Amino acid sequence: MNAPEAKRRSGFVAVVGRPNVGKSTLVNAVVGSKVAIVTPKPQTTRHNIRGVYTEERGQIVFVDTPGIHRPKSKLGEWMNESARRVLRDVDLVLFVIDASRGWTEGDARIAGELFPSAVPVFAVLNKIDALPNRALVLPLIERVQDAGEFREIVPVSALRGEGLDRLVDLVFAYLPEGPYFYPPDVLSDRPEAFHAAEIIREKILLLTEEEVPHAVDVQIESWEETDRLLSLSAVITVEREGQKAILIGRGGSKLKEIGTAARRELEERFGKKVFLKLWVRVRERWRDRPTFLREFGYRDT
């Protein structure tokens, strides 16, 4: 990272698209670290999360955004607005499309919001590894070319790392010259307590079904760390007593399963023993109540 500062290129890049198109997987793959949780469930990402990629050419600050969707709650409305706000303050937009599903009505709706735009927009065709035939990429590129004024159309597989080097090269070509925004060793702008809460929520999303996953919020209540031990407690909020019962499970079995999975990943992340305590509470309709949304960190509501 010894390039003269005047020749470095640095900037902010919004990563937008429908839910479940692989935005977080893409950011994690380029940054080389898990800065955003990933699950197969829609609306896994709730906050704008910055993932920082730094090398000798400069620094790319990716802003991973919630999937733009048809909201069913005030939380959903906040997530959509949060994603849209980012578009006003970046140097480049990566519009991620699930190539395995082709061009959808949802993609067209979001593209309609992106153009016209003074900010350059790339179309990133993700999940090309899921196509039954790679020959299907070309007609999709042609379809996307007709849908908007994309500066570049880049096929990638974030899961397998295909096409990411070319994507990074193209991103740097569009960024302005300037110094790093973050120190070279920073990978995310979020504190570790945020990432710990997200890891716990990820395990809930992966280990529960039906209405429970999206009715959940996780907040870190206490955090004590030494060289050898991290002790933390977290409160899990749901909307109904029935959801609480499902989350706890018979004899506490489900909560124990969630805690064990979260603890293992936290120990790997922090490189030390982790003591994790979880408890569950009910806050009725918290996703539609601005007071709770603000309390849980969903600002501007």
UniProtKB/TrEMBL annotation:
<comment type="function">
    <text>An essential GTPase that binds both GDP and GTP, with rapid nucleotide exchange. Plays a role in 16S rRNA processing and 30S ribosomal subunit biogenesis and possibly also in cell cycle regulation and energy metabolism.</text>
</comment>
<keyword id="KW-0963">Cytoplasm</keyword>
<feature type="region of interest" description="G2">
    <location>
        <begin position="43"/>
        <end position="47"/>
    </location>
</feature>
<keyword id="KW-0699">rRNA-binding</keyword>
<dbReference type="GO" id="GO:0070181">
    <property type="term" value="F:small ribosomal subunit rRNA binding"/>
</dbReference>
<dbReference type="InterPro" id="IPR006073">
    <property type="entry name" value="GTP-bd"/>
</dbReference>
<feature type="domain" description="Era-type G">
    <location>
        <begin position="9"/>
        <end position="177"/>
    </location>
</feature>
<keyword id="KW-0472">Membrane</keyword>
<feature type="binding site">
    <location>
        <begin position="64"/>
        <end position="68"/>
    </location>
    <ligand>
        <name>GTP</name>
    </ligand>
</feature>
<dbReference type="InterPro" id="IPR005662">
    <property type="entry name" value="GTPase_Era-like"/>
</dbReference>
<comment type="subunit">
    <text>Monomer.</text>
</comment>
<dbReference type="InterPro" id="IPR027417">
    <property type="entry name" value="P-loop_NTPase"/>
</dbReference>
<comment type="similarity">
    <text>Belongs to the TRAFAC class TrmE-Era-EngA-EngB-Septin-like GTPase superfamily. Era GTPase family.</text>
</comment>
<dbReference type="InterPro" id="IPR005225">
    <property type="entry name" value="Small_GTP-bd"/>
</dbReference>
<dbReference type="GO" id="GO:0005829">
    <property type="term" value="C:cytosol"/>
</dbReference>
<dbReference type="InterPro" id="IPR004044">
    <property type="entry name" value="KH_dom_type_2"/>
</dbReference>
<feature type="region of interest" description="G3">
    <location>
        <begin position="64"/>
        <end position="67"/>
    </location>
</feature>
<keyword id="KW-0342">GTP-binding</keyword>
<protein>
    <recommendedName>
        <fullName>GTPase Era</fullName>
    </recommendedName>
</protein>
<dbReference type="InterPro" id="IPR015946">
    <property type="entry name" value="KH_dom-like_a/b"/>
</dbReference>
<keyword id="KW-0547">Nucleotide-binding</keyword>
<dbReference type="GO" id="GO:0000028">
    <property type="term" value="P:ribosomal small subunit assembly"/>
</dbReference>
<dbReference type="GO" id="GO:0003924">
    <property type="term" value="F:GTPase activity"/>
</dbReference>
<dbReference type="Pfam" id="PF07650">
    <property type="entry name" value="KH_2"/>
</dbReference>
<dbReference type="InterPro" id="IPR009019">
    <property type="entry name" value="KH_sf_prok-type"/>
</dbReference>
<keyword id="KW-0690">Ribosome biogenesis</keyword>
<feature type="region of interest" description="G5">
    <location>
        <begin position="156"/>
        <end position="158"/>
    </location>
</feature>
<dbReference type="InterPro" id="IPR030388">
    <property type="entry name" value="G_ERA_dom"/>
</dbReference>
<feature type="region of interest" description="G4">
    <location>
        <begin position="126"/>
        <end position="129"/>
    </location>
</feature>
<keyword id="KW-1003">Cell membrane</keyword>
<feature type="binding site">
    <location>
        <begin position="17"/>
        <end position="24"/>
    </location>
    <ligand>
        <name>GTP</name>
    </ligand>
</feature>
<dbReference type="GO" id="GO:0005886">
    <property type="term" value="C:plasma membrane"/>
</dbReference>
<dbReference type="GO" id="GO:0005525">
    <property type="term" value="F:GTP binding"/>
</dbReference>
<keyword id="KW-0694">RNA-binding</keyword>
<feature type="binding site">
    <location>
        <begin position="126"/>
        <end position="129"/>
    </location>
    <ligand>
        <name>GTP</name>
    </ligand>
</feature>
<dbReference type="Pfam" id="PF01926">
    <property type="entry name" value="MMR_HSR1"/>
</dbReference>
<feature type="domain" description="KH type-2">
    <location>
        <begin position="208"/>
        <end position="284"/>
    </location>
</feature>
<feature type="region of interest" description="G1">
    <location>
        <begin position="17"/>
        <end position="24"/>
    </location>
</feature>
<dbReference type="GO" id="GO:0043024">
    <property type="term" value="F:ribosomal small subunit binding"/>
</dbReference>
